[in-house]
Amino acid sequence: MDMHKTIIKTEKQKMIDGDLYLAFGKELESERQYAKEVLFDYNNLHPSKVDERDNIIKKLFGGVGKEFYIEPPFRCDYGYNIFWGEGSYANYNLTVLDCAPVKIGKNVLFGPNVNIFTAGHPIDVEMRTSGLEYAIAISIEDNVWVGGNSTINPGVSIGENTVIASGSVVTKDIPSNVVAGGNPCRIIREINEDDKIRYFKDRYIK
């Protein structure tokens, strides 16, 4: 056996492994097209067809909890890289660019117009215009609340119980049990016992 034999990766395998890859090959293009067609059906079902919508997501995603809810319209690149936890909910217009795994814990809440982007493009102009891309996994742990119009960038991890204020751009990891917000998103304060009795914005913006 030739121990020095070169292993040739497909563009899909490069994408999943976090290497630079070209997104416009036949395999990846066909998978994105499939997801678009599936989500067209999902987003255009009658509002009463909850079970049918749930079954579409169960077949499209890499994993999903027994109970969940995603308000249409919803969009993603592939679907199979999304792992959606039990009891997690997304409001209207969630977009997930799932070129790398996106792991969402239990009881996570997403406000309207949230973006989750694992995909990135090189800074160097020659590399970028050649069509090369990369993707880095995102992890959102249990009980997180992400406010509306927030964007979560490649490689970010958000710890359990944390609240991300609306309109935030999350570029770095955020630990557990804090309120964070802004562009770029920063820790505002820790969540504490006072939050059990004083829950409105005058508490979490200080």
UniProtKB/TrEMBL annotation:
Sequence ranges assigned to domain Maltose/galactoside acetyltransferase in this UniProt record: 12-66
Name of this chain's protein: Acetyltransferase
A GO molecular-function annotation: acyltransferase activity
Pfam families (UniProt xref): Hexapep, Mac
Endpoints of the signal sequence: none
Keywords: Acyltransferase, Repeat, Transferase
Record EC number: 2.3.1.-
Zinc in keyword set: no
Superkingdom as given in the UniProt entry: Bacteria
Family that this chain belongs to: Belongs to the transferase hexapeptide repeat family.
PANTHER family according to UniProt: ACETYLTRANSFERASE YJL218W-RELATED, GALACTOSIDE O-ACETYLTRANSFERASE
Keyword Acyltransferase part of the UniProt annotation: yes
